[in-house]
């Protein structure tokens, strides 16, 4: 599947820093959700945005925040990075919650 | 609590052989179930999607089944190839409208050896 673009593909940050990850959703999709996937684990739901409003959140602290823009692209911001934040961050977009969600290739974040 | 359990955790087979991966879920209300293939360090790619009324869905050498009564699904891979080596993730979507949630299994790591 194509259409969801994430940037950057890889990133190395120092503990305590802040990071912004970006996601361009597939054309026509108005819903974006973000996931954290640790090595060897399934993705964990961070939050979801529908038409620029957050309408669902997983068990992540407030230092994980996000935005969705009028063109439905999205950002994930993480403040005060911790070593355990090292993971693959996935973005998925959808036009209809029932059916069509497409994942991007992810951003590999390493916190040192 | 919504949960998706996959088995086996990992599997090693020889090229050309068939295999079946299992997914049991306790997600309510059920919307649909998808199987994804995820190569290491890459995003998941959808293989099949099934709604409540569908029992079987095929995509080339991949065939997924769904038993909504027992809340079980399987993914059968026929005539495996080396490129099938990946993690296979079962994902169940609950509810509807704009407020939905995906529940992920932890995946089955498949290794196909020559």
Can you tag this structure with a few keywords?
heterodimer, A: 112 residues, mainly beta, seven-stranded mixed sheet, four-stranded antiparallel sheet, 11 strands, 0% helix, 52% strand, globular, B: 114 residues, six-stranded mixed sheet, five-stranded antiparallel sheet
Helix % of chain A is under 10%
Low-confidence stretches of chain B: none
Number of strands of chain B: 11
Q: Report how far apart the termini of chain B are.
A: 41 Å
Report the order of strands and helices of chain B.
EEEEEEEEEEE
Order of helices and strands of chain A: EEEEEEEEEEE
Q: Which stretches of chain A of 5+ consecutive residues score pLDDT under 50?
A: none
- Given the helix and strand composition of chain A, which structural class is it? mainly beta
Largest sheet of chain A: 7 strands, mixed
- Identify the overall geometry of chain A: globular
- As a whole number of angstroms, the C-alpha radius of gyration of chain A is 13 Å
N-C termini distance of chain A? 32 Å
Structural notes for this entry:
The complex is a heterodimer of chains A (about 110) and B (about 110). Chain A has no helices and 11 strands. Chain A is mainly beta. With about 110 residues, chain B is mostly beta strands. Chain B is built from no helices and 11 strands. Chain B has strands at about 5, 10-15, 20-25, 30-40, 45-50, 55-60, 60-65, 70-75, 85-95, 100-105, 110-114. In chain B, the strands form 2 sheets. In chain B, strands 2, 4, 5, 9, 10 and 11 form a 6-stranded mixed beta sheet that branches. In chain B, a hairpin with a 6-residue loop joins strand 9 and strand 10. The interface of A and B includes residues 31, 33, 45, 90 and 104 of A.
Please outline what is shown here.
With 112 residues, chain A is an all-beta fold.
């Amino acid at each position: 599947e194509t259409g969801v673009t994430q940037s950057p593909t890889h990133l190395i940050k120092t503990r305590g820093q802040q990071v912004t990850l970006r996601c361009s959703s597939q054309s026509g999709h108005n819903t974006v959700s973000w996931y954290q996937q640790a090595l060897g684990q399934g993705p964990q739901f961070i939050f979801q945005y529908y038409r620029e409003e957050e309408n669902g959140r997983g068990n992540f602290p407030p230092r994980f925040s996000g935005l969705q823009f009028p063109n439905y692209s999205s950002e994930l911001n993480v403040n005060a990075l911790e070593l355990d934040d090292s993971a693959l961050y996935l973005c998925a977009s959808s036009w209809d919650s029932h059916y069509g969600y497409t994942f991007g290739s992810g951003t590999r974040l390493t916190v040192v | 609590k919504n949960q998706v359990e996959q088995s086996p955790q990992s599997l090693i087979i020889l090229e050309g052989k068939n295999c079946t991966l299992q997914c049991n879920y306790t997600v309510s209300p059920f919307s649909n179930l998808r199987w994804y293939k995820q190569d290491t360090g890459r995003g998941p790619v959808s293989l099949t999607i099934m709604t409540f009324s569908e029992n079987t869905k095929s995509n080339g050498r991949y065939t997924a089944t769904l038993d909504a009564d027992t809340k079980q699904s399987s993914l059968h891979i026929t005539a495996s190839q080396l490129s099938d080596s990946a993690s296979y993730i079962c994902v169940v979507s609950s509810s509807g409208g704009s407020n939905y949630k995906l529940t992920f299994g932890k995946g089955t790591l498949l290794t196909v050896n020559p």
